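Q: My labmate handed me this sequence with no annotations at all. I'd like to see what the chain might look like in three dimensions before we decide whether it's worth expressing. Could you predict it?
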Amino acid sequence: MKIWLKLSMATLLLAALVAPSIAQDSKAEERTFLVKEKHEKGVKVREEHEESQETKVALEDGTVVETTTKTETETQVTEILAVSAEGKVSQGRVSWPKGTQVVEVVKLGEEPADPVEMDIERKGASILYTFNAETKKWEAKLEKGDEELDDVKKALKKAEPFANPFIPGREVKLGESWDADKDILKTMFASDESIELKEATGTCKAEEVVKEGELELLRISFEMKISGKLKDENIGTPDLAGVNKGSIFWNCKEGRAERIEMENSAEFVATVQHPQLGALKLTITISGSASAKFSYGKVSDKEEEKEEKDEKEEDGMDG
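A: Here is what I predict for the chain of 319 residues:
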């Protein structure tokens, strides 16, 4: 009690001044953000995508017998042609004007082979997606490209070509967590015939506000886990477990993502038959990273003409 009485007036004033500051910080942490997509007819979304992936094949004793490194750069352009009364995309055209993949394989006991560079299978393809209001399903029409290529086939089979399972479509508080849309997550893998999906779950969290120039972005972290079986005639149907985690930098004012950064990992064990050694138990681990940057607006006629010209020139060189 004597100590309390000795508190000076200055100390009491300081406490009074600090209290409002603490209250303001508390209010700042309770800020809410609208995390909902806003779509507009006629807008073109340009996505510049980069990805790297490393696959290692190891024996039971841990010896790595093969390492495959793949890097990929791709440009995807989405043109929003129609928007429903609910504000969702109801028709859109997706094209892939550019795309390159470099693959390098290193095998145990062999000299590294020269990297192989090639165009991605979707390069030059264009698909028109239209939502059928009666059947409640998307219909895909290949306007350009080879429908026999695997990547094109997967794109044509997409059940939800424009949905994002991590965007809740409502206001969230800073620090709030929520579950990703399970139905949309499952449809993301529906077109991949090499996976028999058992479960796909995801969690998200509004982590922090990031300022980049004049933009104020909400960083949303996400983690997606999948489990199931691989379907491959060479290795059978081994169990598969994978994790994909990263961040979406969300422009709340415009209702769109500015960029995405993510990392992924997966592992499975398979038994294969070797001509001389017989049955071999192998552990395959996959790790990688990817990023995507988005720009919005109408791509100018000059840019479209330049892309078409560059594509024709590249095709001519390949021929």
